[in-house]
Amino acid sequence: MVVACLLVAGAALGYWVYDQAVNGVRTSDALGDKGARSTGGTQNILLMGLDSRKDLNGNPLPKKILEQLHAGASSEVGGYNTNTLILLHIPGDGSRATGLSVPRDDLVDVPGFGKQKIKEAYGLAKAREEDRLAAQGVKDHAELESKGREAGRRTEIQTVRTFLGVPIDHFAEVNLAGFYDLAGALDGVDVCLKHPTKDKNSGADFPAGRQTLDARQSLAFVRQRMNLPKGDLDRTRRQQAFLLSAVHKLESSGTLDKIGRAYSLLDAAKRDIVIDKGWPLMDAADQMKKLAGGNVSFQTLKIKGFGTYRQQSVNLVDPPAVRRQVQELLRPAPSPRPSSPQGGGSKPAAPSPRPDSGDATSLGGDGAPCVD
Questions:
Q1: Which of 11, 33, 51, 135 could be bridged to 78 by S-S, CB 3.0 to 4.6 A?
Q2: Structural domains present in the chain
Q3: Which ranges carry the Cell envelope-related transcriptional attenuator domain (predicted)?
């Protein structure tokens, strides 16, 4: 899931990770040279969490791992849907970063496929590319998987870029195994629940209040959507809260300064993550460290409501309205007006707050935002 994207980005961990380690992390050309890029040092990073039960080579995960993930007994479950999509906006002026979560069931235009759920862009393009190559006589499984995934990444990136109307400068992709490996490397992450909850599908079984989750519990926490007031939208809030708490722990516990833990994270990165070729891990580490201490807030992009399309439940969206919301949320924070020279001692006007969807998630003082 998406938390692994940031944790792996942090796995570069500064000055002691040398070329032989960094070269082991997989990179992708999927971002290419197409599309505008951000200016003024600002970075837009797309984080994609696949719900795949397969490794980076397309091979099924071992049954034992599937059982630990509580994610179904078959490697075919989940397919290649990007069940987590977050655009992380890091301003070039050092001000607070913003993460925009895109609900996975938003019905959008997918290039070459028409109206589809946004999460399906990756898998649809991957399957089509593999079929095309197979028709040309390509039989090598590794080649089909590699080129199919590149096609999937390109289409997902293009879909998100067009839907949100913003440049995408870098991306990171991870699957369920990556989340599990990295959550375990943290030795537990603190979360806070407003109410007790259970869900047999995800394996969630949590009391109310603050608690520390191990790797298995962490996966259940971010995957649960049944028995939550807003279903899938509440799951998005949980992912945001977990991400904030995990990044907070990386910094506050000194993990970013422990060589042994650094290489543990990096080993997991080599197994489970793909980043774009133009994003050096050293740069990624610096950017992710800036998020520690609560220097980031998350928003879930608005939907119009729920509907049915081709006999599937979908989120109905208004793309122009979504793009307006994105522009409002990512605009630079206004500076306070200086005190008037006349009238002596008048206070500067408070900056106007940025609009939000009503579902902002920010880091609390204890590093564990409370969610449903």
A1: 51
A2: 2-188+257-320 (3.30.420.590)
A3: 81-251
Report DSSP letters for 95-129, one per residue: --EEEEE--TTBEEEETTTEEEEGGGHHHHHHHHH
User: Would the pTM count as exceeding 0.90?
Assistant: no
- What are the structure tokens assigned to 77, written together? 């479950």
Long-range contact set of residues 110-114: C-beta below 8 Å, sequence gap at least 24: 110/155, 110/159, 111/155, 111/158, 111/159, 111/162, 112/155, 113/155
For position 201, what pLDDT does the model report?
80
Q: How many CB atoms are located within 10 Å of the residue 33 CB?
A: 7
What the block records as the tokens of 68 is 């630990």
The amino acid that residue 192 corresponds to is C
Rounded CA separation 291/289 (Å): 5
DSSP 45-87: EEEEEE--SB-TTSPBPPHHHHHHHTS-S-TTTTTT-EEEEEE
Please report the DSSP string for 296-363 in residue order: EEEEEPP--EEEEETTEEEEE--HHHHHHHHHHHHSPPPPPPPPPSSSSSPPPPPPPPPP--S--EE-
Burial of 188 (0-12, 13-18, 19+ CB in 10 A): middle
Mean pLDDT of all residues in 191-200? 89
pLDDT value, residue 140: 95
